[in-house]
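Let us work through a complete example step by step.
Step 1: write down the sequence.
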Amino acid sequence: MAGTAGDDRQTQSGPPQDYRTESRARNGIGVAALVFGVVSLVLAILIVLFPIAAVVGLIAIILGIIGMRRASRGEATNRGQALAGLLTGLLAVAIAVFLTVRIGVFLTENQDDFRRFGSCITSSTDRQEFRRCARSLAEEVDR
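Step 2: predict the structure and record it as tokens.
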């Protein structure tokens, strides 16, 4: 019944008085940035998966920037999560770039050793020769 005591609705037709016109916080992008940032950092630390870490880190950076913009416009309330996602993404990309450069330099400096090792392995006929090839490669790389 409209207009009775304890009734929160207006007596006229329309939305109830406690109807909220303010929009809900859109925190999904900031949370996603944090998740992608942490995942990319873990992948970068695992060393073998650093190329994937670079891609996931770039996604975290983009989402972190978008999340921070939303927070500065008042559309989101999790600026800290977006910033953490941005920073972990940046760190993961930096680690991935560092590893790419280091591995590239290592392979360039030792490419002749790897070629000799490949030739030695293909010409070896038993385990003894295979072990000799491996020892020879280890000695060459250590120099």
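Step 3: interpret the result. The chain has a mean pLDDT of 86.
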